[in-house]
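Look over this one:
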Amino acid sequence: MKTLLSDIESVLVLSPHTDDMEFGCGGTIARLLREGKKVTNLVFSICEESVPSGFENNILEKECLSSGQVLGLEPERVIIKRFKVRKFPDQRQDILEQLVKVRNDGNFDLIFLPSSNDFHQDHKVIYEEGLRAFKSYNLVGYQLVWNNLSTFNHFFIGLEERDLDKKVACIKEYKSQGFRPYSTEAFVKSHAQLLGLQSGQGQYCESFEIIRLFS
């Protein structure tokens, strides 16, 4: 069966914060890289103001780069900006200009960005400005269940166990975030199993909101 993923070659992920790609679509990115697709991760903040006590201020930048290596991202395809965490609404125009620059420099077939009902203020800005900058592109929203009052299961992407193992491994690179209950291997795998059951297509899945698709 031919799928949307069969037809794409280049993917862009919009990550408000360093670990959003890994949590939101890490298994899918592992699959895409395994299948030879080009993936770029555009990260807007290294969240220096919210680093836990005992870690250096730029630890999340280091962990993001290490996580990218585990996934198999080419180093030049991890683009990290330094917008202030939780201040994105005040930096909206600068964020839009960065999005337009990356859009003009690249040739992307599919964009992953936060879902439309993500209530984190930074995620909401990246969704809204991402939609403005990429309104003529295929757009799907990844979902962080702790930031969503409800979720969309419009688009299921099946994962092999090795894809899920990559997701778990790259999340483990974020040692500064190990205290978060959703960072455990048990949570990541059980959530993927639940979505696999809901999809009826396989053992493991990630699910996404369809925002815009073109044919």
About this structure: The two ends are 17 Å apart (CA to CA). The mean pLDDT is 95.
